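Quick one, tokens below:
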């Protein structure tokens, strides 16, 4: 597992913007390179709420191998549902107020349709 590092909000915003550019340009191999080998790509169902990830249900819960297979399929002619390509939608959390020392910041979902 990779070591945890502290990043600024601006760095996170820059990363998300760069990731979005890769997806919009359909540069999926470069997008795939953003993931750690031991990482997972998870898209929880809307009813997940505060359910811990070990008990929640996901639309997608891919490890690196499954994510590579998903990208390979999307790039092939066998992905008929991707003709034309899907439009990318982004859902970000908007932080409201600073967190007190030792507390986690609350994120509130915001859906952006680009």
């Amino acid at each position: 597992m990779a070591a945890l590092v502290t990043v600024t909000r601006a760095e996170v915003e820059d990363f998300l913007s760069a990731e979005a550019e890769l997806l919009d340009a359909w540069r999926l191999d470069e997008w795939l390179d953003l993931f750690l080998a031991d990482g997972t790509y998870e898209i929880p169902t809307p009813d997940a709420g505060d359910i811990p990830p070990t008990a929640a249900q996901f639309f997608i819960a891919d490890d690196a191998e499954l994510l590579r297979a998903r990208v390979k399929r999307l790039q092939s002619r066998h992905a008929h549902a991707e003709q034309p390509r899907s439009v990318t939608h982004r859902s970000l959390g908007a932080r409201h107020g600073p967190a007190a020392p030792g507390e986690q910041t609350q994120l509130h979902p915001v859906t952006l349709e680009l």
